[in-house]
Structure formats: C-alpha cells, structure tokens
C-alpha cells in the first residue's frame, strides 16, 4: 500500500493524496439513508484527465477498486467507496471551461456544482434546465446517476442534456464522445451509455451540456385536491393540454404539512380547504412573454378546477420560490422525521392512480408508513418509507418495486441503483439484461476495478 | 443451405421464406448512391419476436450473417445484405400496436411506416415529430439509423423519442428495455445503445415512441440572403431568440433552383431578388394559438431582416407545404441530377460558416462540384457531391469529413455509417473508440452474425 501511495503521489502530487484514515469523514459517505460509511484506502484529487488516466492504470495493474466522487449528494451509495479503494475526488476539477453562447452549450469539469453552473449561465441569459433540487450536487455526479428533478416534464433529465463527454476508461485510455451537436449517427452512442452508469464504466472528466434560452417570466399555481387519486388523474390531462408546464409536482397532505411546518411557509390557503385536502398539485409555467404567461396561468387555473381541484391559487413570487425550495428539500424533511428509506420509482404517468392505490395496500399490509410527493408529470414517485424492522422494510420495498415494474415502470427514476437498491435490481430485473449489462461492463472495464459492488455483486 | 432453408421454413412457415435469387430486386438494395446491390441467400419475414429469436439462433449456430430490413430507404447501405446472409424483412410486423393517449406514447412494430404512424397519431391529436422526409421509411429503419430530419431543431431526433424497445439478441434472447416513461436510472441504458446501431447489436421487434400534442397552427417564412455565410451566421441568432422554430433549413441557390424547377414551384419571389440571392433560410413556426403564431411570424420576419435577409416572405399554406415536400425530396433531385454521393455531416451550428468556407476550398481544389442544403438549426449539412472519378471523390469526401471533425463535428448526423461511410469512419475516428465499440459489439453478438461489414470490417 505504501507503493500505491507513492505512485499516486507521483501522479497527482503529494498534496493531493491522503490516506483514507486521515481524510474528512465526508469522503466516507453520501446522503443515502441506508449507505454504510466506509473510509477508502486513499483519497486522490486529480487535476486533469491525464492524471485520472494514470490513476486508473495504477488501479487496473494492481486490481485496486476505484470510486469516483463529486459532491457526495447521491442517495444510492454509488459514491461510497470500499475500504480497499482509491476514492477519486473531482474537487480540483471544478471549472466551467466554456459557456458557448452561439451553440448554447456549456463545457464543464465534473466537480462543478449545479449552483455555479446556474450562476454562470444566468450571466448569458441561458439556463441548464435540469434541476435535481440539491444545488451543491456536482455535474459529474449528475451525469453518473442521470439526475432528474422537477423540470424534467418540460426539459427532460441529465441524459437529454449531455451532448458529449471526455471519459477515462479503466484501460487508461481517454476518449471523447459526442460534441456540440444534438444528433449524430456515427457508431454507437457511447455518451448515452456512460450517462447513468454510476461510475462503473468510465470516469467522466469533462461534459458538454446543452443549454436553453432563459425565459424571463414564471408563475406558479397551487391546486389542493380532495384526494390523491384525483391529483394523479389530472396529471395526464394537464400534459395533454399543450400548456407545457415547467414543473408538475404532486405533494401529499402529510408531506405538505411537514415541509410547510419545517420551512414556516404561509401559502394563504384557508384552513377549511387545507383540512379537507388530501393532496396538492404544483404547476409552474414559464414564458418569454409576460402576457402569454398570464393567459396560460388563467387557462391552467380553469383546467385544474375542471379536473376536480378544490381551488387554484396563483402564488406570489416569493411564496412560490419558497414552496419549490421546500419541496426540493423534502428528502431532508423526511430524513429529519426519521424516514428509514426513500424510493424514487418511475412508471407510466397514467399508471400513477393504480400504483398509489397499491402503495396504500402494501403499506397497510406491512404496517409501514409511506408518504410522499413526486414528479407527477414524468410518473416519478418519491416515497419516504418509515419501518424500523429491516426485514419488513425490505419486503415492503420489494413489493413496491415489483408493483411499479408490473405497471410498466422501473426501480429508480433518478437516484440510481448504487448499493442501496442493488438487491432489488438483481432480484427483479430480467436476468438476460443483467447478463448483457455485465458483458458491457466487461467491455469497458476488463479488470473490474471501476466501482465494484455498484449495480452488480 | 437446403438445411437452413427448411429450418427457416419451420420457424416462419414456408410462405415466408424465399431464396434470395427468387426475391424481388428491391431486397438487394437501399437508396444509397454507392450501395452495391446484393441478393441475400434467403429473405425471411418473421411474424413476431419469438420467430425472430429462432432465426437468430439458427444464424448464430451456423455462423450465418443476418441483416435486418425495414423499407429499404436507407442511404448508407446498412440494410443491404451480404450474398451469404439471411435478410430479415419486417414487412409482416407492420402494426401500430397502441396509441396511448394518456401517456402520449405509440407502440409500434418495426415494419410500420412513418406515413402510417402519422395517420394514426393524427386521429388522436398527437404527433410523432421526427420527420426524416421519406414517409415510406419504416420505424425499425429509423431506430436503426437514429433518423433525424427537418424538425430536429425543435423536437430532437429518433433517439429522443424512443422510450423503449423489445429487441432480439444474437443469443436468441428477447429483452425489453425502457418503457412508457421518459427517464430512468436503473442500470445501463440499453435502449439508447441499440438506437443508431444499424442492426449490428440487436434486432428491434417493437418500439415505444414518445408522442407530442399536435399543434393546430403552422406558418412558414422564406428569407433569401445575398450570400451563404450570412444565412449560416443568422442561424444561431434565430435559435437564441427563443422563438423556437419547428424547422430551420438552409437551401443554397443551386439546390433551390433545382427543387423549384423539378417540382414546378412558384414561391412569388421577384426575379431580381432571386437572381441576387445565394442562399435561403426556411423557418417554420407552430403554435397551439393562432394569434401567438401571427406575432411570432412578424417577430421572425423582423429578426431575419435585421440579420441581413434581403426580404422575408410568409408563404401561403399550399406553397409552404410544397416547398417543404420539395426540400424533403432534395436527395432524389440530386440523384436525378447525377450526384455521385451525398454526405450529411454534423457539426456545431456556429461552425457552419467556417465549414462552408472550407467546403468551397475542398471542392475547388478537387475539381468537385458540391451543392447542398441542410438542417441548419442542428448543424447538419447535406451535400451532394458530383465527381465521377472515384479516387478524387474519396479524397474530397475524406477532406470534408476531416474538416467537419476538426471543427468539432461527426461524420454522419442521421444517415449512418453503414457500408457507405465505413472507410472514412474507421480511418478518421479515434482507434480507442473503435476498439471499445467492437468490444461492445462482442458483448451483444459474440458470434458476429449481426450485419457483419457494417460499421466495422
């Protein structure tokens, strides 16, 4: 191990290698509720792709596991290292290399945070519209998990905005895939394969991201509904209307109560309405033209009332911002309330009413308390699961995932599989697909050093 | 071979197997200008995924090449079989299985044509917005080549609309990837890997496609410019305006002359303007609201004039439709005029002026005549190349592709590599990426029976 330490120091400089035992506790974990904090053998901070490639060569030669880390805000444990691993921290590779205003593209290093990219794009009237909620998250981590968030109903998720990557293979080769164009038919799309692969195929050292024009005007409509089923039934109709919402979220009454209490939010909803509402729909609209936005807000209010909303409130700017911020932090609210796990299964949006009915049944039968909110426009349901008994909880989770898959869904919409959901993934997914994914993994990483234990055993 | 024929007949029924020698000439070719027509050993038409799997098992056991065929409208030869191959024609698997109006999804078999899908979606006020121009093209072929077309600037290309596939591997396994949801982070994205793989990784037997609301109102603005550089310089500005055009095409004067002549088009452009214009920009807009569309048309006209257009004409509906149709058929116009090859390189849209300048230089130096048009909004340039001498032509093409790649582009935006552009692909692309793609190919197709000779030697 002394040999490895000096070899790593030769690559990145002594100041940029630490023994895991000496590194900050933060390197041992992510934000997942079930992640087991583990200090790696070494924490290494490369300065560029060339250094990253040398680290991977050293790892492959010695069979040493490598885990990549951005900001550590993941929820599935994919950035949590093994005890014998080299943790590659991209903290030094944190520059926005370019905001290209003609091609509407940003070129970033993996350690750049969403907050920094938001600030840099705003200066140019552009926006990177993927908004997973945690602004301290890194772009490298977002690429690794194919992060989503509230604006996916309008703009899609990380995958739809990564036009190209520079990536280091476990062979030590550095490749560049894609570029500043939105389409190509020139061999296999390696970029799309690397996005969402949770650090198991390659380490991304640069990403070329598609930007959008930043529209000037936004408005938020909040609609309480008598019951959750009515909310989720309304969702496909709002999408079909062509109004094109930026955000289309459902929040159940329990979660709304918790986040408004935690964040001391006053939304101006009469007590009587609040007491009889089981769930809320939040619709955010945007437009480059203020008048068009006003018309759309009016049309949305009428539509929601026609779809069974008790009422529809246009939230003033500051309240709307605080509600969205509070919703973004719902995970932390659930964590603070003692949630034992969170899931983010995705399914056809029209299957949400049936799924939510099944969730209630599974929760009751397993004596598990389940509350949530979700990106209703994309059928992505975020549930906080309260059940101390690990066996009962695992059984309930397996049933929830199986129900989602039976209705045409998948285990995770945006958090990823990592370690946290691996057992369910390997248990419920088609073995032929698992075997194929393992062969693909082998094609990228013949020595198996990239994030072993993530996705596969 | 008699054994194989009877084995295939056992799988699909005798009526659905033909010897290549007895099959129609059409099975031997696609529409590519350089494709070499080749009759396969057998033409087989499976009725479902199970039969397709049995065909692939028989092929893998005997090492017999398999090429998939939709409508044969490809331009790069990926559907042209080898003489010893089984050609799998999806002509019997031609049903639209579902138009799901709540999830905005179509589920189709690979033999469905774009025309049929257009008709079926129109009945429900929805649209599959990928529009590669040739409506007789099959969805299976579109998925295999990641087909693009004129509306990509607004809606993206095939890749962005394929939410899931059922696919048969060369192992005979049938897998289902993705589904009726727009995002997931549940293992590697096999769907996106299979899209654009030109029949070399798997045979797609069903595709789940994202649909959009069909907007009611469309308008087309035609703007002549004094020179081509001014046109391509205007493109990023139109995109940045936020007007969100559905179509943003450039057509050079030579190509415009040819397509208006061939299609007997009267666009109402004064002779004097036409005679001094070197190129045209076609901007199509759409909106769900007629008044908003009118405002956008006016704003577009002002913008184009400010960007140097000689004038901006709003085309009446029938003229606009005929111009777009004629533009779609530009390939056939070039073919009719005796073009020796076509290319469809893609590059950052802001690099178009520099690229077009280099094209002129390459054309002059190689005594090659090059004209074109293109999806300017996505930086996808379609050039017809007139040069009878094969060596001179190959040299010119290599220089054109090298120039595009040097400016950050890729060889093909939407036609694919197939056989037609393989030599350039293998010559110009990073060997590390080629080697990785070959390992991925091996992971899917260990016996190498799927479309050998396409993409790789």
UniProtKB/TrEMBL annotation, chains A, B:
Entry keywords, A to Z: FAD, Flavoprotein, Oxidoreductase
Domain FAD-binding PCMH-type: 36-214
A Pfam family annotated for this UniProt entry: FAD-oxidase_C
Superkingdom in the source lineage: Bacteria
UniProt-listed InterPro entries: FAD-bd_oxidored_4_C, FAD-bd_PCMH, FAD-bd_PCMH-like_sf, FAD-bd_PCMH_sub2, FAD-linked_Oxase-like_C, FAD-linked_OxidoTrans_Type4, Oxid_FAD_bind_N, Vanillyl_alc_oxidase_C-sub2
Molecular functions per Gene Ontology: FAD binding; oxidoreductase activity
Cofactor: FAD
Name the record gives this protein: Oxidoreductase
Gene that encodes the chain: glcD
């Amino acid at each position: 191990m002394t040999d490895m330490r000096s070899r790593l120091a030769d690559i990145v400089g002594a100041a940029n290698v630490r023994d895991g035992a000496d590194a900050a506790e933060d390197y041992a974990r992510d934000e997942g509720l079930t992640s087991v904090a583990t200090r790696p053998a070494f924490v290494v901070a490369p300065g560029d792709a060339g250094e990253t490639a040398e680290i991977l060569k050293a790892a492959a030669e010695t069979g040493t596991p490598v885990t990549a880390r951005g900001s550590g805000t993941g929820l599935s444990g994919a950035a949590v290292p093994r005890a014998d691993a080299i943790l590659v921290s991209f903290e030094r590779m944190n520059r926005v290399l370019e905001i290209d205003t003609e091609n509407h593209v940003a070129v970033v290093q993996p350690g750049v945070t969403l907050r920094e990219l938001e600030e840099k794009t705003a200066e140019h009237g552009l926006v990177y519209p993927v908004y997973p909620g945690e602004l301290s998250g890194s772009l490298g981590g977002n690429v690794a998990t194919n992060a989503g968030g509230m604006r996916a109903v309008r703009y899609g998720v990380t995958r739809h905005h990564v036009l190209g990557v520079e990536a280091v293979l476990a062979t030590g080769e550095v490749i560049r895939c894609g570029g500043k164009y939105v389409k190509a038919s020139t061999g296999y799309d390696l970029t799309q394969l690397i996005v969402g692969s949770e650090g198991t195929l390659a380490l991304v050292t640069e990403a070329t991201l598609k930007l959008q024009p930043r529209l000037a005007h936004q408005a938020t409509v909040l609609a309480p509904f008598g019951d959750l089923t009515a909310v989720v039934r309304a969702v496909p109709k709002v999408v079909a209307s062509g109004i094109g919402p930026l955000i289309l979220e459902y929040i159940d009454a329990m979660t709304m109560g918790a986040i408004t209490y935690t964040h001391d939010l006053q939304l101006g909803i009469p007590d009587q309405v609040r007491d009889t509402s089981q769930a809320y729909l939040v619709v955010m609209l945007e437009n480059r033209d203020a008048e068009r936005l006003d018309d759309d807000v009016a049309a949305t209010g009428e539509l929601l009332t026609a779809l069974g909303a008790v009422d529809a409130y246009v939230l003033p700017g500051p309240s709307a911002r605080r509600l969205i911020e509070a919703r973004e932090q719902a995970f932390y609210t659930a964590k603070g309330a003692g949630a034992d796990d969170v899931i983010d299964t995705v399914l056809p949006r029209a299957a949400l009413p049936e799924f939510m009915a099944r969730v209630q049944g599974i929760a009751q039968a397993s004596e598990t308390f389940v509350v949530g909110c979700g990106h209703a426009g994309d059928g992505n349901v975020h549930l906080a699961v309260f059940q101390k008994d690990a066996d009962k909880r695992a059984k309930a989770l397996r049933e929830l995932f199986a129900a989602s898959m039976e209705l045409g869904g998948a285990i995770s919409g945006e958090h990823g599989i990592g370690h946290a959901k691996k057992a369910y993934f390997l248990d419920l997914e088609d073995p032929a697909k698992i075997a194929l994914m393992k062969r693909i993994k082998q094609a990228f990483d013949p020595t198996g050093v990239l994030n072993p234990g993530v996705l596969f055993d």
